[in-house]
Specification:
Blueprint lengths: L1 H14 L6 H11 L3 H6 L3 E6 L4 H12 L5 E3 L7 H10 L5 E5 L5 H8 L3 E4 L13 H13 L5 E5 L3 H7 L5 E4 L19 E4 L2 E4 L13 E2 L3 E3 L5 E3 L7 H16 L4 H8 L11 E4 L2 E7 L3 H10 L6 E5 L26 E4 L3 H11 L3 E3 L3 H6 L4 E7 L1 H21 L1
Parallel strand pairs: 1-3, 1-4, 2-3, 4-5, 5-6, 13-17, 14-15, 14-17, 15-16
Antiparallel strand pairs: 7-8, 9-10, 10-11, 12-13
């Protein structure tokens, strides 16, 4: 009955032009049968991917690396809460494997429902404090959830203090040196409250001598990936940034933990390119537009490092809707000073807030709230667009609309 109602809701949503219908289908199914996620996941071998940043990309990479084992159910659009997960399981009932992106707050109860074989912990940092709360609370909740599943293999980033704390007591941990470009949320030990000290060799707590950076079983450099038993292979990925090399390394480690061949897994993660619009390139008039998504200080700092400083224009679009977090005080944690030599266009619903931050950063800029108009104002050529969640979503819709109009004119 739940599945039939979900199918009807999907059809109605699509027919009415309200969207693809996957979310409403998942909501309807869960309302009718609260145990639907557990029923749909029964018998499947599942990997869960969570963390503040990089979930969608890593999930796509994990699914690709697991594909040699069999059909893999995974989200195509990053819907990582209960309704999206149920929708994914509903539409892929025959797949023996799952690679599921899960919001950090939802990991414990989703794990209780799907009993994951592998849990990938990427990173933890402040994100939407008005919804999520302080990051140490998330770490404690993850730690409690992991304790309920001692048979799960945890693939954890040992460079991230909070992730290490969440995974530290688990019986089966695969440690990965995936990098940590942002350390502003882990200056103190999450277990003792004492300072964390960092050296070239790693980090350690001054309050608990046993709590220190574990030795990794997997790591990477600018050319290769390295693993247990002397394994190494060239690591060539289609998405930019050092963080994504770390994401790829964790995806490979997880797939290998589930039985995939290491070399085949490495080759598979290299095939992942555009992910739900991220890193996509669109032609808009005389502009070639590349879109990047960032949602919190850590993500923004990483995304800023991906910006091509030789591009002809840069648009930064910021909204402050509920999915973004309505409190934009985090703008002052992002180092916009990096754009002292690059002309910026501030856009989005909160363009004025961004403009004030750019002013104090000494970044030359103009303010044009409409992102499409902001793109049009840039010199002809390549334009980089960096946007937060709803600004990125709305821009994607506008770009699709522009592409359809262009085709109709042709």
């Amino acid at each position: 009955m739940a599945l039939g109602a979900a199918a009807a809701a999907r059809w109605a949503s699509r027919t009415a032009g309200r969207g693809k219908g996957s979310m409403i289908g998942g909501l309807v199914a869960a309302k009718i049968d609260p145990q639907i996620m557990r029923r749909l996941a029964a018998g499947k071998r599942t990997a869960i991917v969570t963390g503040t940043n990089g979930k969608s990309t890593t999930t796509r990479m994990t699914a690709a690396a697991m594909a040699e084992l069999g059909d893999v159910a995974t989200q195509a659009d990053g819907a990582n809460m209960d309704a999206g997960i149920i929708a994914t399981l509903t539409l892929n009932r025959d797949a023996p494997f799952c690679a599921l992106e899960v919001d950090e707050l939802h990991v414990p109860h989703v794990s209780d429902a799907v009993d994951p074989e592998v849990l990938i912990l990427l990173n933890l940092s402040r994100d939407q404090l008005d919804r999520v709360g302080e990051i140490n609370m998330i770490e404690r909740r993850l730690r409690e959830g992991i304790a309920r599943h001692p048979e799960t293999t945890v693939v954890a980033n040992c460079d991230d203090v909070l992730v290490t704390s969440a995974a530290f007591d688990a019986p089966d941990v695969v440690w990965v040196a995936a990098g940590a470009g942002w350390v502003g949320d882990s200056v103190s030990c999450p277990r003792t409250g004492e300072p964390i000290i960092r050296t070239e060799a790693g980090w350690q707590s001054t309050g608990d001598e046993k709590f220190r950076r574990p030795d990794p079983q997997w790591w990477f450099d600018d050319e290769k990936i390295y693993g247990p038993g002397g394994f190494s292979a060239p690591l060539e990925i289609a998405v930019p940034g050092k963080a994504n090399r770390g994401n790829a390394t964790q995806a490979v480690a997880a797939a290998v933990a589930m039985g995939a061949d290491p070399a085949a897994a490495v080759a598979a993660v290299g095939t992942v390119g555009e992910v739900a619009g991220r890193y996509g390139v669109h032609q808009v008039g005389n502009h070639s537009v590349r879109t990047l998504l960032a949602k919190n200080p850590a993500g923004w700092q990483e995304a800023l490092s991906m910006i091509d400083q030789d591009a002809d224009g840069l648009v930064i679009a910021v909204n402050g809707q509920v999915p973004d977090g309505e409190d934009l005080s985090w703008l002052w944690d992002v180092r916009f000073e990096a754009f002292e030599t690059m002309q910026v266009v501030a856009a989005g619903e909160r363009a004025a807030d961004l403009s004030v931050r750019l002013l104090y950063a000494g970044a030359e800029h103009t303010t044009i709230p409409d992102p499409m108009a902001a793109i049009a104002s840039c010199p002809p050529g390549r334009v980089e667009v960096l946007a937060n969640y709803t600004a990125f979503r709305d821009l994607g819709i506008a770009l699709e609309r522009a592409a359809r109009s262009r085709k109709a004119e042709q």
